[in-house]
Design a protein that fits this description.
This protein is of the alpha/beta class. It has a single domain, classed as Rossmann fold. It has nine helices and five strands. A five-stranded parallel sheet has the order 2-3-1-4-5, sandwiched between helices. Helix 7 crosses helix 8. The longest helix has 23 residues. About 5% of the residues have low confidence.
């Protein structure tokens, strides 16, 4: 049986998705990629990491892309790299790095349209982590250090940006159930038990092959 497992995690801000991914990677003893993906993509392509950081999970301006290609949706076309706005070029380079990482072996990849980029990866499990608003807000304030007076709006703004990024590059709505093998409310079981549930899901999925 093939022991390779690729886990992609899309997550609402404050849901604990990154923490869940980190714990999954530790339990399975496999590499974890979140911001680490930016560093690697920058190194592999000889690009300033700050460029990737500034473009991270942010869509390009669709107006300029539409002018360049006379299109409205990025995901259904394969334009020439040099014709693309910088954010779009960085997305393609980052996607190439994601494919390379998946080819190397088991790993956990957080965000960055991983479910879309690796949709044809047979060893992948695609997850979406969400949570109750109260729990997300508490985590944003107490764990992420966002000031309480602006935390609610910052949380909403971050999710709007993630949704726009996914919608722009994939051409479909972020968070729709058909994109994922498992969608979990981390508020129901808490972080640790959510990790345990995912590990059991992976074990069952692999046993069915």
């Amino acid at each position: 049986m093939n022991d390779k497992i690729i886990i992609t995690i899309a997550r609402e801000y404050g849901s604990g998705g990154r923490e869940i991914g980190k714990q999954l990677a530790e339990n399975l003893n496999i590499p974890f990629y979140d911001k680490e993906l930016i560093t690697r993509a920058a190194e592999e392509n000889g690009i300033d990491p700050d460029l990737f950081e500034n473009a991270d999970e942010k869509p390009s301006n669709p107006f300029w892309t539409s002018l360049a290609f006379n299109i409205g949706t990025f995901g259904s076309h394969s334009p020439t790299m040099n014709d693309l706005p910088m954010n779009d070029r960085l997305f393609l380079l980052q996607s190439k790095t994601i494919h390379k990482i998946a080819q190397e072996g088991s790993c956990v990849i957080v965000g960055r349209c991983g479910d879309y980029i690796l949709e044809n990866e047979p060893n992948a499990v695609h997850l979406f982590i969400h949570a109750n608003s109260e729990d997300k807000l508490k985590r944003v304030i107490h764990s992420y250090g966002i000031p309480a007076e602006g935390a609610q709006e910052f949380m909403k703004k971050t999710d709007r940006r993630r949704a726009a990024y996914y919608d722009y590059y994939v051409g479909e709505k972020w968070g729709q159930m058909e994109h994922y093998d498992l969608s979990i409310n981390s508020s129901t079981l808490g972080i640790k038990s959510t990790v345990d549930l995912i590990l059991e899901f992976i074990k069952i999925k692999k046993s069915l092959k």
